[in-house]
Amino acid sequence: MSVKAATAPAAEVSLDELVASYGTGFRRRAVLRGVTMSAEPGGITAIVGPNGAGKTTLFCVVLGLLRPQRGRCRVAGLRPADYRRRHGIGYLPELSVFPGGWTPRGLLARGADLSVAGNRTEIFSAAIARTGFDAATLSKPIDRCSKGTRRMLGLAYALTGDPALVVLDEPFSGLDVRSRAALRREMLAARERGATVLFASHELPEVERLADRVFVLNDGVARAARAWSPDGPAGLGLETEVTASDR
Length: 247
Description:
By secondary structure, the chain is of the alpha/beta class. It contains 9 helices and 9 strands. Helix content is 35%, strand content 23%. The protein has a 6-stranded mixed sheet, sandwiched between helices. A hairpin with a 6-residue loop joins strand 1 and strand 2 (29-39). Helix 4 runs antiparallel to helix 6 (147-158). It is globular.
């Protein structure tokens, strides 16, 4: 998860006619049915669509945790698993599960220890500052922290060492107004330093506010949102596109 973007190649993500499924034999269930899309360095790319559309499955492929049946996925020209092993990927899952008995301070210290680039002390200090937590919160058992606090902790852990690829699954879930603003700042800062930011969200106003590119994923197929296309009709709302894809 944790190398600095400066030491990793620009993490362009490309998917070409990607087909992925779960299960085996007669129980195999196709989830992605030929997805072609890309996410570029120095940009924020959003994936939107209804529940069950395949967003998390797509992320599992990009992270190198699920091998596609057909098609291709590459990160900086490498297979995702190879890229992850060499350079790390910052990942915030929709549901973060933390080890029992740990505190935020201990978890972030472990993240800094695992970083393979940069000064460990500096990386740890940056991760602590990123949370905005006070001393009491940093020392509290994670399982006693609020959902919003755990969410921001997961984000800080994912961004440890400034990875060149950041993947965020429903990052705004459970965040209050202040935490939402902090998350936006972190996403924009990652874009500014040249990282590739890929996120999925049902929070369409946040998508419209942050994304440079948007893909609508439905029934395992992705297409570029027309509202972000040069030839798209002016004033077309993203909500209209997503709800139309459900029908």
